From TrEMBL:
Keyword vocabulary terms for this entry: Methyltransferase, S-adenosyl-L-methionine, Transferase
Catalytic activity line of the entry: L-glutaminyl-[peptide chain release factor] + S-adenosyl-L-methionine = N(5)-methyl-L-glutaminyl-[peptide chain release factor] + S-adenosyl-L-homocysteine + H(+)
Top-rank taxon, per record: Bacteria
Organism this protein belongs to: candidate division Kazan bacterium
The name this protein goes by in its record: peptide chain release factor N(5)-glutamine methyltransferase
GO molecular function annotation: peptide chain release factor N(5)-glutamine methyltransferase activity
Name of the top EC class for this enzyme: transferase
Gene encoding the protein: prmC
EC number: 2.1.1.297
Residue intervals of the Methyltransferase small domain: 110-186
Residue ranges occupied by any Release factor glutamine methyltransferase N-terminal domain in the UniProt entry: 5-72
Length: 274
């Protein structure tokens, strides 16, 4: 099979994907171990038989809605390539806004220790460490398999001396903190998600009827030890107001502000305790 034929065939097989041709190109590049630029430059080159078989197998899995990142075992976040598998959520673009806010705050206040709760594959912790070389990052998760993935990524980036991995439930390991970043499950249980999302770990996705169960628990556990500090969390646009109202009702010294995505939509909340 020639490269152009393979891409055209894969595109037809993935007609229900939101980006069938791009998916086909990414998977062919991965299966053939060639950059996409080679595919464009040599459309009539013959693909070796074994590579063709691997490509067709990948297309079959993608047609069944398996996420591209799980098939290629990698995902880019903050211009860093991460190893991912079915034990961790796939990093999303909106999380970058949370990281940018954390970097700005840490630089402004010269914060030396940052806690990343629900680290998953370690993408937030690693992005923070690379942009804040003088800060220590404590990355925690309740899932040991996720921590194994995070450790692999931390070692790949050579950041094992800057990032500490902790097996912990929410904030139970934190005695005091100036800055906490948390990306916890926040999808409401009733919410209908796309098929590809259902391949991701369900415990890392859903959080009660309104999706805010774990964040409420986090703040209840964290506040007595924070006194003065900031918590940055990722959530859905419609969840900002109820989360903000809950915080104001329960804590007299909190000020909340929205975190906006690149398109202006709300993707997170900043809670300042003074």
């Amino acid at each position: 099979m020639k490269i152009k034929e393979a891409v055209d065939w894969g595109t037809k097989q993935l007609k229900y994907s939101s980006s069938p041709r791009l998916d086909a190109e990414v998977l062919l590049s991965f299966a053939s171990q060639k950059p996409k630029t080679d595919l464009y430059a040599r459309p009539f080159a013959i693909i070796p038989t074994l590579r063709t078989k691997k490509y067709k197998a990948l297309i079959k899995e993608r047609a069944a809605s398996v996420p591209i990142a799980y098939l290629t075992k990698q995902k880019e976040f903050f211009n860093i390539t991460f190893y991912v598998d079915h034990h961790v959520l796939i990093p999303r673009p909106e999380t970058e806004a949370i990281v940018k806010n954390a970097i700005e705050l840490a630089r402004k206040k010269k914060i030396k220790i940052i806690y990343d709760i629900g680290t998953g594959c370690g993408n937030i912790a690693i992005a923070l460490a690379k942009n804040l070389p003088s800060a220590k990052i404590v990355a925690s998760d309740i899932c040991r398999q996720a921590l194994s993935v995070a450790k692999r990524n931390i070692l790949n980036q050579g950041l094992e001396n800057q990032i500490e991995i902790v097996h912990s439930n929410l904030a139970e390991h934190i005695k005091t903190a100036e800055l906490i970043v948390a990306n916890l499950p926040y999808i409401p249980e009733y919410y209908r998600v796309s098929k590809d999302i259902l391949f991701e770990p369900q415990k890392a996705l859903f959080a009660g009827m309104d999706g805010l169960k774990f964040y409420r628990r986090l703040f209840k556990e964290t506040f007595p030890r924070l006194f003065r500090g900031t918590v940055l969390i990722e959530l859905g646009t419609k969840q900002y107001e109820p989360m903000s109202n809950w915080l104001i009702q329960h804590f007299s010294n909190v000020q909340t502000t929205p975190i906006n995505n690149i398109d202006g939509s709300i993707c997170g909340l900043k809670a300042n305790f003074s």
